[in-house]
Amino acid sequence: MENSAVLFHEVSKRFGATRALDHTSFTVGRGETVALLGHNGAGKSTAVDLMLGLRRPDEGDITILGTSPSRAVASGRVGALLQTGGLPDGATIRDIVRLACGLYGGKRHVGEVLELAGLTELAGRQATELSGGQAQRVRFAIAVSGRPDLLFLDEPTVALDVEARREFWAVVRGAAKGGASVVFATHYLEEADQFADRVVVLSHGRVVADATPSAIKAMAGGRTVRCVLAAPDPQRLLALPGVVDVTIHGNDVLLRTDDTDRTVEMLYTSIGGVRDLEVTGAGLEEALISLSSRKDQS
Ligand SMILES: Nc1ncnc2c1ncn2[C@@H]1O[C@H](COP(=O)(O)OP(=O)(O)OP(=O)(O)O)[C@@H](O)[C@H]1O
């Protein structure tokens, strides 16, 4: 029974002395959109390559749509947009999409795929005449031309500006409405927050969190207090009520606290000389740093 699109169980992969993945486990449910989130070198691309059968794990089991990665890919039920991948010169976008649709046995019509990827108006252009965001939508069109049940996107918006990223994700959302599962690797925290049902946070090849974006933010907990002090003393600041972490750059102080009211009160009464105080909720960036460092220390 195929309850899960991806079962990634206790998977390890080394490159020489580097452990790219270290007993990594996560699942992706049918119809779910899951972000693999982590800093450079966290192991995201390695995980994607293994799920596509492009590499083999040293240890562990990977099941994709109820079978092995290579069988799942061979069945045509998996689509992928990888980090590298040129587009042919001299052909129009319509020609490129027609080729992709043909290779997948005509599971989707050319016009449908162009529409899905927001390329209808650009169908007569050549790849060299497109912006980075538009070219990425062509790669996306190729990835979905076989009507995949599972779609992998490896850092799909890495070179795109904010507007192109927004347009790209609007296209992905539309395409995923058909019930496909989507796994995307990203180090853009706001992307994971906005577009994923669930986020698997990787750090040094290990899963440090696996939860909804809001649960991950809650896990890191607390809020951030920023201020400027004449002579910040890390020991005194760490001793303030609620403070769990202190970062100091020159006179700029950043405190992570689980009791904002008392921290701020004591900052004014026992430390004094506080300027430019600002309190913010913990964002995904703080959550990621906190989760990664917590696990690294364990
Ligand atoms: N072919 C390879 N040979 C040697 N080391 C590799 C190879 N591929 C990946 N690594 C190493 O494995 C670790 C994980 O790399 P990976 O590319 O999976 O990370 P990532 O999270 O995708 O990073 P990025 O966001 O930079 O793409 C890194 O330390 C990387 O240097």
Brief overview, please?
This protein has 298 residues and is of the alpha/beta class.
Task: Describe the protein in words.
The radius of gyration is 23 Å and the shape is elongated. It starts with a strand and ends with a helix. It contains eleven helices and 13 strands. It is 36% helix and 30% strand. The chain folds into two domains: 4-217, Rossmann fold, CATH 3.40.50; 222-281, Alpha-Beta Plaits. The mean pLDDT is 88. It is an alpha/beta fold. The strands form three sheets. Strands 5-6-7-3-8-9 form a six-stranded mixed beta sheet, with helices on both faces. Strands 11-12-10-13 form a four-stranded antiparallel beta sheet. A three-stranded antiparallel beta sheet has the order 2-1-4. The protein has helices at 44-51, 69-74, 93-103, 110-116, 132-144, 162-176, 189-195, 213-220, 234-238, 260-271, 284-297, and strands at 4-15, 18-29, 33-37, 59-64, 78-81, 150-154, 181-186, 198-203, 206-211, 223-228, 243-249, 252-257, 275-281. The structure holds adenosine-5'-triphosphate (ATP). The site of adenosine-5'-triphosphate (ATP) has 12 residues, from β2 and α1. InterPro entries: AAA+_ATPase, ABC_transporter-like_ATP-bd, ABC_transporter-like_CS, ABC_transporter_ATP-binding, P-loop_NTPase. It is found in: Cell membrane. GO terms for molecular function: ATP binding. It comes from Microtetraspora malaysiensis. Keywords: Antibiotic resistance, ATP-binding, Nucleotide-binding, Transport.
